[in-house]
Every structure is written in structure tokens, then in C-alpha cells.
């Protein structure tokens, strides 16, 4: 691993998984749709920090502006004022398929055979990308290029290509009704031609997507917090298996698949903003309740409950309420440390986590601490944190985690590490405790997490905790670069995934396609990015 990747392990908060994307769409004649989209993306920035883009249509043509970086880095007043129209699609990206390149920034754009434009933004991850790539190759008649253009390497790109290929003959709406049932995996989509805004959500509703009302139009967004920011009132969630079309004729709803809800449980734990609501349940209230239940499931005598800011804060408040132990701020977070592309010196690398978190020594010294965090993925951040708290004078450090152990990779749009890197995959709780150096370690139970969400267990995807994947995965040759070996060879775990031949011991040599699309599932490229 390069020194740059070492820095990623140590400095960046790798205990927190990264969600793939946030999408935003607005249809509002007479409004400044580019600026509305800019603010909507600002509210969704936590869902992706690699790239941002906005596409705007004025009814005759579509203009796309996108680049690598944060929303505030990509757009300025001059750019936004040049994006004029009545309809816009916005996107923030954190890649789970495809590398970090300009081509892979979204919204992705295609021109149909009739010359109209089609733009698309996608949150989620498909599991039949290889099949879709073969369809695209068959359409173009060439194996590796499409019309000789420089092409992106994402599942979103393929969906846009397939939509554009058939829209010229039958229209975008009908093309979507035919294509969407063939997409397998998690997808919340916002897409548009020059006239109409579309929104669609996979039949399992793995990733969130909501519909909001403006005085002069409509908004779709990944989270309700984005509706709040732009002054839209929440209407409802886009239903699993539903396609919405919004244009001058109003709003139309079609069903392309029977709903089988499997909302992502990790949205409640970490991914969504605390001021968002999912399925009618406040994310903040869920996290506080998780902490309260955690205090009952894993009590310990201590002097102070402190969060790992910011994601551990609501659960720490709940733990303090449930235990009667005072809540305090023992760590200060630097809000301005994001992803770094500067090669560090050895001296700076040794600072590690201190670039992001620094202890309040007068609060910590001589105390028995309960530290509440949202999750443990690799364990590097918690290890550094425990060491830092002890150096600051903590007598005891008891770690409490507001999610069950993350043992399985996500194939539906979360950038977790590969199976081999998930610390809880190869170690039991005591092993993880020793690994991070805590005095005690406890996680919320899966039952406790589900109860706090107030959702029926049957309506949640908990695959990263229990390995029960609700959407069947493809055969191993199309599973990705690293994940097959991790799924079948990790000690002490029997895959509950239908991976043909995997149960009979060592599968032998793993055949991995060289194609950048087919070989980039879930978090397969998690360590390959800067």
C-alpha cells in the first residue's frame, strides 16, 4: 500500500463508510432551478464528496456542468447564472463503481437518435451491470467503445445509454417502463429529457427518494432535509417500484414492479442526515433511541459519556439519558478537514487522527469514559482514538457502537471495505476489543437497532450485519475484483449468498473480468482510490 493510502487509512475517518450518491431533481417553471438544485445538493453533500454536477433544460436544449470536488468548489455564481431553464437534475457522487474521473461525475448525458438529450443521476448500485454492458455492446456493435467517445465506467452510464437507445422510438417514459424492471440491485434515479422530470426507485426501495412540492413546481431528492433547504413541503416517498413523470401536464405515477420493501438499515445508523425522516421516522430520534437501548443492553460504570463527533452524537445523548451517566464533549472536531490529495510528510502522517479530532484534556483527565460511535469498519480510527484518549489521561475507555458488527460488504450502494478488511469479519467482539485497545466493547444488537427504527424487520435490508442479501447476487465471475475471495474464504463464516460452487471449499483460481464496469461492484475498489 502506498504512503498516500496509508494516509487515507489513518487520517480520513475510515470508520465511517461512504454512501455512493445523492440525487436531486426539480421541475419549476419561473424558478431559478439551477440555484435550487445547488442548495439541494449542498444539503446532500454528506452523501458524496468526490464530484458534483447539475444539468438544466430550458425546453429546447440541456446543459450539463459537472466536475470533481465539493458542491461549493464546482459551482460559483457565474456558472449557476449561465444554467437557465425550468427543469434541473443534480448529483453528488462518492463512487462505488467506476473510478474518480471527470467522465464518471454525474449527471450522465446521452443524445438520442432524434437529437434530444437525456440526463440521469443515480444513487445505489446495480448487481447485473455485466449484463447491461453486454446489451450496450450489442447496441453499438463494438465490444469496448460506444460511438468512439470517451466513456464513463459506471452502471449509471449504462442505464442512461440503454434509455437513450430506445427513447427515440417509443419515448423516455415507455423506455423507462421497459428498462427499469430489468435493473437488478438498488437504484434511486432522477432523470430528464428537455421537457419532463422523471424519478424512479427500485422495487426494494433500498435507497431513499422523496417527492416534495414547491409553490410553482415539484422536487425529488434523496433526503427530506434537501426539501427543507429549498422550501419544499414533503409530499411522500417515491414508492418502491414506482416511476414518476412530472411535466406541464402535471404528475403521473406508474408501477414498473411490485414493491418488496427492503430499506437500508444503515441509513438510520450513519448515512442519512439526522434532520431527515425515513418512512415517517426521524433519523435523529432513531439514533437517540439506539443509544438508549444500547445503555440497557451494555451497561458499564463510568463518569462521562462522550460521542465521536458528529455521527456518534445522537446515540451518545441516548446512552447518557438511558444510563443516567452525564453526557459531555470530550473531543473537538475540525469541520474543515475533508478528503486530502496532498502527499504528507512522515511527521504529518504521524499526527493521524489529530487532524480531525483533538481531545479536551481537562474534560478527559482522570475519567472513566464511555465513547459512543456509529460503527466500526476497519477499526483504524477507533484504535487511534482510544490511544489518544489514554494519552490525554483517561482512566478507562469503554467503546459502545450504535450498530451491530459490520461483517459483510454492501452490494447496494455503500462503500464499505472488502470482506477481508472488515475487522468484525475475522474477529469476534473480544478480538475487536483487543485490536482497538478498549477496556470494553459492545455493539447494539440487531433486534435493538430494528426496534429503534420502528420499521418491521421484513422491510429492512440488514445484509451488512447478517449476510442476508435480499437481492440475489450474480455468479462469482461477475461479482468483482476482490469480493469473491473474501466471501468464500473468510474464516468462520458461511456465505448466505448464492455463489455457485463456493460452498465446496477453495474455489480455485478466480476469474475476474478486466472490464472496468463488470469488475467494480460495491466497494471492490475501496482501496484503489485516492
From TrEMBL:
Its EC number is 2.4.2.14. One of its GO terms (molecular function) is amidophosphoribosyltransferase activity. Residues 503-520 have a biased composition (Low complexity). Mg(2+) binds at residues 311, 373-374. Pathway: Purine metabolism; IMP biosynthesis via de novo pathway; N(1)-(5-phospho-D-ribosyl)glycinamide from 5-phospho-alpha-D-ribose 1-diphosphate: step 1/2. Residues 21-249 form the Glutamine amidotransferase type-2 domain. Keywords: 4Fe-4S, Glutamine amidotransferase, Glycosyltransferase, Iron, Iron-sulfur, Magnesium, Metal-binding, Purine biosynthesis, Transferase. PROSITE patterns: GATASE_TYPE_2. [4Fe-4S] cluster binds at residues 264, 410, 461, 464. Its cofactor is [4Fe-4S] cluster; Mg(2+). It catalyses: 5-phospho-beta-D-ribosylamine + L-glutamate + diphosphate = 5-phospho-alpha-D-ribose 1-diphosphate + L-glutamine + H2O. The active site is at 21 (nucleophile). Residues 495-530 are annotated as: Disordered. Gene3D superfamilies: 3.40.50.2020, Glutamine Phosphoribosylpyrophosphate, subunit 1, domain 1. Binds 1 [4Fe-4S] cluster per subunit. Binds 1 Mg(2+) ion per subunit. Catalyzes the formation of phosphoribosylamine from phosphoribosylpyrophosphate (PRPP) and glutamine. In the C-terminal section; belongs to the purine/pyrimidine phosphoribosyltransferase family. This is Amidophosphoribosyltransferase. It comes from Pseudonocardia charpentierae.
Amino acid at each position: 500500500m502506498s504512503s498516500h493510502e496509508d494516509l487515507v487509512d489513518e487520517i480520513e475517518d475510515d470508520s465511517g463508510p461512504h454512501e455512493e450518491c445523492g440525487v436531486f431533481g426539480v421541475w419549476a417553471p419561473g424558478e431559478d432551478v439551477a440555484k435550487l438544485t445547488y442548495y439541494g445538493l449542498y444539503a446532500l453533500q454528506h452523501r458524496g464528496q468526490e464530484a458534483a454536477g447539475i444539468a438544466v433544460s430550458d425546453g429546447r436544449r440541456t446543459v450539463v456542468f459537472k466536475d470533481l470536488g465539493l458542491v461549493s468548489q464546482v459551482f460559483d455564481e457565474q456558472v449557476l447564472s449561465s444554467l437557465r431553464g425550468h427543469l434541473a437534475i443534480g448529483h453528488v457522487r462518492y463512487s462505488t463503481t467506476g473510478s474518480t474521473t471527470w467522465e464518471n461525475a454525474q449527471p450522465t448525458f446521452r443524445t438520442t437518435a432524434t437529437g434530444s438529450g437525456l440526463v440521469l443521476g443515480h444513487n445505489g448500485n446495480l448487481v447485473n451491470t455485466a449484463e447491461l454492458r453486454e446489451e450496450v455492446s450489442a447496441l453499438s456493435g463494438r465490444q469496448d467503445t460506444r460511438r468512439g467517445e470517451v466513456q464513463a465506467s459506471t452502471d449509471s452510464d449504462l442505464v442512461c445509454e440503454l434509455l437513450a437507445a430506445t427513447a427515440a422510438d417509443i419515448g423516455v417514459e415507455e423506455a423507462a417502463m421497459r428498462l427499469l424492471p430489468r435493473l437488478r440491485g438498488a437504484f434511486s434515479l432522477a432523470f430528464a429529457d428537455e421537457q419532463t422530470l422523471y424519478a424512479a426507485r427500485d422495487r426494494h426501495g433500498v435507497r431513499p427518494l422523496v417527492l416534495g412540492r414547491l409553490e410553482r413546481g415539484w422536487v425529488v431528492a434523496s433526503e427530506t432535509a434537501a426539501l427543507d433547504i429549498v422550501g419544499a413541503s414533503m409530499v411522500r416517498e417515491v414508492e418502491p417500484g414506482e416511476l414518476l413523470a412530472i411535466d406541464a401536464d402535471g404528475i403521473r405515477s406508474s408501477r414498473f414492479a411490485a414493491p418488496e420493501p427492503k430499506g437500508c438499515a444503515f441509513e438510520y445508523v450513519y448515512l442519512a442526515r439526522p434532520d431527515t425522516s425515513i418512512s415517517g421516522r426521524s433519523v435523529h430520534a432513531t439514533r437517540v433511541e439506539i443509544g438508549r437501548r444500547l445503555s440497557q443492553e451494555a451497561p458499564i460504570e463510568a463518569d462521562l459519556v462522550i460521542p465521536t463527533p458528529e455521527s456518534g452524537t445522537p446515540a451518545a445523548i441516548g446512552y447518557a439519558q438511558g444510563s443516567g451517566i452525564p453526557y459531555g464533549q470530550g473531543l473537538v472536531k475540525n469541520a474543515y478537514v475533508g478528503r486530502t490529495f496532498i502527499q504528507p510528510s512522515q511527521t504529518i502522517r504521524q499526527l493521524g487522527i489529530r487532524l480531525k479530532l483533538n481531545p479536551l484534556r481537562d474534560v478527559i483527565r482522570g475519567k472513566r469514559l464511555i465513547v459512543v460511535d456509529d460503527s466500526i469498519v476497519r477499526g483504524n480510527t477507533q484504535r487511534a482514538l482510544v490511544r489518544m484518549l489514554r494519552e490525554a489521561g483517561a482512566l478507562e475507555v469503554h467503546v459502545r457502537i450504535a450498530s451491530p458488527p459490520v461483517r459483510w460488504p454492501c452490494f447496494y450502494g455503500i462503500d464499505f471495505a472488502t470482506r477481508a478488511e472488515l475487522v468484525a469479519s475475522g474477529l469476534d467482539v473480544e478480538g475487536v476489543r483487543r485490536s482497538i485497545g478498549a477496556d470494553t466493547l459492545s455493539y447494539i444488537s440487531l433486534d435493538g437497532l430494528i426496534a429503534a427504527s420502528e420499521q418491521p424487520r421484513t422491510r429492512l435490508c440488514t445484509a451488512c450485519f447478517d449476510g442476508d442479501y435480499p437481492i440475489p447476487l450474480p455468479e462469482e465471475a461477475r461479482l468483482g475484483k476482490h469480493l469473491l475471495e473474501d466471501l468464500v474464504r473468510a474464516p468462520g463464516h458461511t456465505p448466505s449468498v448464492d455463489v455457485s460452487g463456493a460452498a465446496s471449499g477453495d474455489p480455485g483460481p478466480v476469474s475476474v473480468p478486466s472490464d472496468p464496469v463488470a469488475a467494480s461492484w460495491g466497494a471492490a475498489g475501496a482501496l484503489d482510490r485516492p
